[in-house]
Write a structure and sequence with these properties.
The complex is a heterodimer of chains A (196) and B (387). Chain A has seven helices and five strands. With 196 residues, chain A is of the alpha/beta class. Chain A has two domains: 131 residues, 3-Layer(aba) Sandwich (D-Maltodextrin-Binding Protein, domain 2); 57 residues, Arc Repressor Mutant, subunit A. A five-stranded mixed sheet of chain A has the order 2-1-3-5-4, with helices on both faces. In chain A, β1, α1 and β2 form a beta-alpha-beta unit. In chain A, α6 packs across α7. The N and C termini of chain A lie far apart (69 Å). In chain A, 30% of the residues are buried. Chain B is α/β, with parallel strands linked by helices and 387 residues long. Chain B has a domain of 175 residues: D-Maltodextrin-Binding Protein, domain 2 (3-Layer(aba) Sandwich). Chain B has a six-stranded mixed sheet, with helices on both faces. A five-stranded mixed sheet of chain B has the order 7-6-8-5-9, sandwiched between helices. The radius of gyration of chain B is 20 Å and the shape is globular. Chain B starts with a strand and ends in a 9-residue tail after the last helix. The mean pLDDT of chain B is 94. Classes of the chains: A alpha/beta (196), B alpha/beta (387). The interface between A and B is medium-sized, with 29 and 30 residues.
């Protein structure tokens, strides 16, 4: 796609990582005119100055309502802007809302030109949430790990156990009480805190 | 129990009946299994309701109408069988604009005609001195806030599209923008006006109930086709919301209601501010001046029955400000969004309220006539009707 035919795309996203992932994907696909706005102050003024063909915004962003103002007839608007996903395209709406992104386009831009942008956007947003989930899980696993190590230390000291014995006690208690080892470890920490 | 329902809401005090219906168990008592989903924008609430991710939603009354008419967005017919709130917004101005208006006031400062004329003199002075136009924040193009601000300032001769700037701002950004000077005033629902006053960056100039006695603000909205397929569920929702509205209405329950609403997963502001709001007792100036009004925010049973006249008034504002052009069919569609029939069939005689003769009660202009919108709008000098 030549530079002159590449639509100008604005990404409105307060998450710099997600915006970078999306921007990279768009550039790889040949969309060269991509601008990221992370500052929500004077959002409309910046958008009017950039005069984009497509605006992508994440659904966690309260400033989505600000963009709705672009549909209003007003002297400030040079061209009418319409929501991309038209009535016949409920699958696209569903997919983009599920992924957590919304798209607005300048009226008149052809649907087949927008489709690849939105599809890419949806897949990158989904990839980002998967990454986020993994990160959250890793974080909580690390937390558990620390808590378990400290609980083992307490058991070893109080009951004169080896590290392996302490772990076996934690694990068997967790199984008996139908709880996670991390939870049992946490209650040992809490109890030892109380009994100090 | 029916199948689980997902209901969206924006953290505002006029979601009270919906939140209390769920958290106090009125919904469960009706056999409903409701999960409330807190949202960050009206666009999200509208889209998620439209595509079926939400079964019902706390929605701006004008958005329900715009959605049914296909204005600004995808056309999805909406049914509003229950008013979650009437009134409840307020106009808050920065200390410097407050001083400028106060200096121009000639009469009762709670009379919106007096303040609108004062505003018009402030606007004229600013224009002569070459100052930037005043900027007013409001929450959505299709919102009561937008129409109430416009109705008020136009009465004093201020053209909302020519003489000032009206900008959409998400409610959580209003107070910051007023503090930072990006806006000079805003019209927003509770609790945001009180927050601005509490931290000393704003004065409440008007409760919108000064401008209109009774205006539909937020509705419980469902997709029309969904309501046709699930009449029992809709009736149960109406009854649960009505029980909650009755509960909140009792002064002895206000503390508990405020406590429920204050939860971080719900509205997430101080219970004390919520209770003051429900009582209609608001601090209006940083110096501690308190103003009370029994009409400030109506979320009780007397506000609950939807009135198609309110829908017609909102449609008339869309026409007045050029968001759409008038058609008798569109007027019928707009009126049919408000569903007193569904409300009555769910509640029977219990839900009936005494109707006031002029259901809108605007501070200026002729009494609203839903059957002659063209004639009604002709009485207003400033308007931007589509050609």
């Amino acid at each position: 796609m030549g530079a002159e035919s590449s639509p100008k795309i604005v990404i409105v996203d307060e998450s710099p990582i997600r915006a970078a992932i999306l921007e990279e994907g768009l550039r790889e696909a040949g969309f060269t005119g991509v601008v990221h706005i992370s500052e929500m102050q004077s959002l409309l003024t910046r958008i009017y100055a950039l005069d984009p063909d497509v605006i992508l915004i994440d659904l966690e962003n309260p400033s989505r309502d600000v963009l709705e103002q672009m549909f209003q007839v007003s002297r400030a608007v040079r061209r009418p802007i319409a929501m991309f996903v038209d009535q016949s395209d409920s699958a696209s709406i569903q997919a983009s809302v599920d992924a957590g992104v919304s798209a607005y386009i300048v009226d008149g831009l052809k649907k087949e030109r927008i489709k690849p942008i939105l599809d890419l956007c949806i897949s990158r947003f989904n990839a980002f949430s998967k990454l986020q989930d993994e990160l959250d899980r890793t974080k909580s696993a690390l937390e558990d790990r620390k808590v378990i190590d400290r609980a083992k230390g307490i058991l070893m000291k109080l009951k004169g156990m080896t590290e392996d014995e302490a772990y076996v006690l934690l694990r068997s208690t967790a199984m008996r009480e139908k709880k996670k080892i991390g939870e049992i470890a946490q209650s040992i920490l809490t109890a030892s805190e109380l009994l100090k | 129990m029916t199948s689980p329902l997902q209901i969206g809401f924006i953290p505002l005090i006029d979601a009270a009946a919906l939140i209390v219906a769920v958290d106090k168990g009125f919904a469960a008592a009706e056999g409903l299994d409701v999960t409330l989903v807190r949202e960050v924008s009206w666009s999200n609430v509208r889209d998620k309701l439209n595509i079926g991710l939400f079964d019902a939603a706390h929605l701006l009354a004008p958005v329900a109408i715009a959605s049914s008419l296909g204005l600004g967005h995808v056309k999805v017919p909406i049914a509003a069988p229950f008013n979650l709130g009437l009134n409840g917004n307020a106009i808050t101005v920065s200390p410097s604009l407050h001083a400028a208006i106060t200096a121009e006031i000639d009469g009762d400062r709670f009379d919106p005609m007096v303040t609108a004329l004062a505003l018009s003199r402030v606007v004229a002075t600013r224009r002569r001195s070459g100052a930037e136009p005043l900027t007013f924040g409001m929450t959505f193009p299709f919102s009561t806030h937008n129409y109430q601000l416009r109705f008020w300032m136009a009465a004093g001769g201020v053209d909302p599209d020519e003489d000032v700037r009206l900008v959409v701002l998400p409610p959580p950004y209003m107070v910051d923008s007023l503090t930072g000077g990006q806006i000079d005033a805003f019209c927003v629902g509770a609790p945001w006006n009180s927050l601005a006053v509490d931290i000393g960056v704003g004065h409440i100039l008007h409760f919108v109930s000064d401008i209109l006695e009774r205006a539909a603000e937020k509705v419980l909205a469902v997709r029309q086709n969904w309501s046709e397929k699930n009449p029992q569920v809709v009736a149960a929702l109406i009854r649960a919301a009505f029980r909650a509205a009755e509960f909140i209405e009792q002064p002895q329950n206000r503390g508990e209601a405020a406590h429920i609403l204050a939860h971080p997963e719900r509205i997430g502001v101080d219970a004390e501010i919520i209770e003051r709001t429900l009582d209609g007792r608001l601090k209006i100036s940083p110096d501690g001046t308190v103003r009370e009004s029994s009409r400030y925010l109506l979320v009780g049973p007397e506000a609950a029955r939807p009135d198609p006249v309110h829908a017609a008034w909102l449609y008339a504002q869309m026409v007045r400000w050029g968001q759409t052009s008038f058609s008798p069919e569109a007027l019928q569609t707009a009126k049919a969004v408000f569903r007193p029939d569904l409300y009555d069939s769910a509640l029977g005689s219990e839900g009936k309220t005494a109707a006031a003769p002029d259901m809108i009660g605007a501070f200026t202009g002729p009494a609203f006539d839903a059957d002659d919108i063209g004639g009604h709008l002709a009485a207003f000098a400033i308007k931007h009707r589509k050609p």
